[in-house]
Amino acid sequence: MKSLPEITDKVKKNLIWKSIFRRDYRNTVRDRAQAVFGNVFLHLHPVQVRESAVKLRFTWGMGGITFFAFIILVITGVVLMFYYHPSIEQAYTDIKDLEYQVPYGVILRNLHRWGAHFMVIVVMIHMFRVFMTGSYKAPRQFNWGVGVILLVLTFLLSFTGYLTPWDQLGFWAITVGTNMGAATPFLGYQGPFSEFLHITPFNDVRFALLGGALVGGNALLRSYIWHCVAIPLVATILMMVHFWRVRKDGGISKPQK
Amino acid sequence: MNPFIEIITQPDNIAIVIMIFMVSFFMVWAFQQAFHNDRLLAAGLPVDGENDKFVDTFKPLVRIELIIALVVMVGLTVWSILVDAPLEEIANPTLTPNPAKAPWYFLGLQELLVYFDPWLAGVVLPSLIVVGLIAIPYIDINPKGNGYYTFAERKWSIIIFSFGFFVLWLLLIVIGVFFRGPGWLWYWPWQEWDHARVVFEPFRDLSSVVGVDSRSMAGFIIGAVVTGAYLIGGMVAPYMYWKKNHPEFLTKLGMIRYITIVFLFINMMSIPIKMVLRLVFLIKYVWITPWFSI
Questions:
Q1: Any idea what DSSP says for residue A55?
Q2: What pLDDT, on the 0 to 100 scale, is given for residue B1?
Q3: pLDDT digits over B255-293, tens only?
Q4: Which residue in A126, A124, A119 sits closest to A76, CA to CA?
């Protein structure tokens, strides 16, 4: 029988372990710094942060929680995509299958649904916190704007996901929502001044959103692609900018008087 | 079952109940810290976080991030085990539910449809909200209160933002979720939904108050004058006030910022004004034109 240190030694002192972790961690200043900037995931952080960033009181952790909710939604969303066809013949029965056939399908869908609600709530509270601490003020003005667009994208992500189960709830919510598009001034067929541009139900904003004059198969495909590919892509790029700018603008805001 | 219990225990509405609790909690926490810092400022002491030391990211920050992630994950998992996401009947274009509600975070906008035509409630006002939010850092020239909670040093910006955030956004969402029934009519929590309920709406337009048909030329002119007076008066009145009382503030603000702030503000205030006009004075439209109505 070997002792624990011997086993650890065996595990750590070989070519494979060393190729992955490069060096041992000792609790020194240098190694604590190395642990952050030598790790692709942790290097979003600076090596040292102000105490307020560690206490919950100031930030409430809301920005980080929003990002974490987004990660949960990406993971559960990708798994859901394995079981889903964006067509009106199959979409609804696919969701039923999740309920009755797929192992843990119910939990999977629940996590995605409640995670989405949760993300909308925490992103709104994050905005409230940033406002209340005046953190949008110089030099962070631009990053506030990026954040507002990310807030809108969060709403749109949730909204486009609404239609995917192809049930009454989603169908009518999307119908109500996209009817707003028809009221756009100039560009929607019911909106003011649209007659000057010869806008009809077949060439207006709503038609572009739905891929048709009514919510149908094209609308389902469009909302699916916006939901799973296009908006997450844009949101990811903006999140990169958002986090990058938090660092470049001096980290978590500190009292400036 | 009591209709109110039925509404708040609907799976999707549990999220709104959670939101109400979370938002109230963080609102109290924010203002409590703001007043705490205000007392420190008044005493000439440094505010919270001003004399912060630096700590290592690894492990204090990484540890707390891991703990929060675990708490969130466990919370969401428990929520997902206890409550199942609803799945209604398959989509049926021939069967319109009443009421047909938008997703909960858009119910504030759907609520605006009561007071404004769709082109305003669904397109123009939401666009102005987004533009206005992005504009905040550029129009707020108060350098104080940067990086700490405070109320005393930036009273007006906090009051205006809180009014928009808590009243015009969150309160309207709560109304849309819990108090709107068939036909988007108001239902108290203890009232049963009645699909046959018809409400006689004795609404009139602004010019009919003085006895002029709102669709006549005279009505058109009255509406135009009132709307124009609101817009122009709203743009000019703050200028007169500041010019008289705080001319130095106006100089610091500059013309472009002034126009942006006041334009956004009078658009924001048009919402409560339209609400009062409709709910108290039973006035539907202020101005009817052949192209649009306000």
A1: S
A2: 52
A3: 999 999 999 999 999 999 999 999 888 888 989 888 888
A4: A119
Kindly indicate the confidence band of residue B67, based on its pLDDT and cuts at 50, 70 and 90: very high
d(CA A220, CA A229): 14
How many A/B residue pairs have CB atoms within 8 Å?
A: 271
Q: For all residues of chain B together, what is the average pLDDT?
A: 91
Distance between start and end Cα atoms, chain B: 41
Contact B100 A183 (CB under 8 A): no
Name the CA radius of gyration of chain B, rounded: 24
Residue of B nearest to A250 (CA): B147
Q: Which residues of A touch B111 (CB under 8 A)?
A: none
* Subunit contact A173:B89, Cβ cutoff 8 A: no
Closest chain B C-alpha to A4 CA, distance in angstroms: 25
CB contact under 8 A, A145 and B137: yes
Residue A107 has pLDDT above 90, yes or no: yes
Confidence check: pLDDT of A251 > 60:
yes
Residues in Cβ contact with A60 at an 8 Å cutoff, skipping those fewer than 6 apart: A125, A126, A129, B26, B29
- A223 near A241, Cβ under 8 Å? no
- What chain A residue is nearest to B141 in terms of C-alpha separation? A137
On chain A, the residues whose CB falls within 8 A of the CB of B100 are: 172-173, 175-176
Band (pLDDT 50/70/90 cuts) for residue B12 is: confident
User: Do residues B212 and B222 touch, judged by C-beta distance below 8 A?
Assistant: yes
* A55-248 homologous superfamily: Cytochrome Bc1 Complex; Chain C (1.20.810.10)
Token pair recorded at residue B231: 């817009």
- List, for residues A126-183, the tens digit of each pLDDT value: 999 999 999 999 999 999 999 999 999 999 999 999 999 999 999 999 998 898 888 8
Instruction: Report domain extents, chain A.
Output: 1-48, 55-248
Supply the DSSP string of A193-252, one letter for each residue: TGGGGT--TTSSHHHHHHTSSSSSHHHHHHHHHIIIIIHHHHHHHHHHHHHHHHHHTTSS
